[in-house]
Amino acid sequence: MNAIERFYLPLHQLLDKSKCLDGLPLLLLRLYLAPIMIQAGYNKLSAFDSTVQWFGDYLGMPLPGVMAFLAIAAELGGGILLIIGLATRWVSIPLMVTMFVAAFSVHIENGWLAIADGGSWLANDNVIAAQEKLAMAKSILQEYGNYDWLTSSGSFVILNNGIEFAITYLFMLMVLFFYGGGRYVSVDYYLSKALIKKQTD
């Protein structure tokens, strides 16, 4: 018996016992993504006219009113369905489309990073240039503002608005698309069981 047979297989079988909890990461993905999607949809809805104008003038989308409505429906409706795990795989599709469009029509020109971190190996020229501006802003605030109070909620940063968040959400939604809402923790699981049982009765 070689080392692989002696150690790998028993450890692998031991780890397989954790599969009884395989719905947990899918539940956590849903609960992480849901408020993000709901907030994005709510923001678009509360400034609907501006959203329509932005879709048309900045993004150059045809029928910007329709596109804005679809984006809001996907994010608000999809976010609510993600919470309970109903139609998870179906609602992941329009949400993936929304994230893809956001990444490659809005954020791509800014590179990868969401926050301008000049020390990152992913920093582009814009991010590197932002470091001087950030240092100047901090200097002005330290001299003329109550800097300790201003930074008591966190450090100042410059938003680079790259594709980092949109792509991350896209990949998370892709997991939900392929694996669903999760065993034991989603309405989908129980609905599917009930429908299968009904068919076999």
What's this, in brief?
With 201 residues, the chain is mainly alpha-helical. The chain has nine helices and no strands.
Short key terms for the protein model shown above:
201 residues; 2 domains; 9 helices; single chain; mainly alpha; 0% strand
The helical percent reads over 70%
Which spans of ≥5 residues are poorly predicted at pLDDT below 50? none
Rg (CA only): 23 Å
Number of strands: 0
Number of domains: 2
Q: What is the subunit arrangement here?
A: single chain
Q: In percent terms, what proportion of residues is strand? A: under 5%
Shape: extended
- Written as H for each helix and E for each strand, in order along the chain, the element string is HHHHHHHHH
Main pleated sheet: none
User: What structural class results from the helix and strand content?
Assistant: mainly alpha
Number of helices: 9
Average pLDDT number: 93
How far apart, in Å, are the first and last alpha carbons? 48 Å
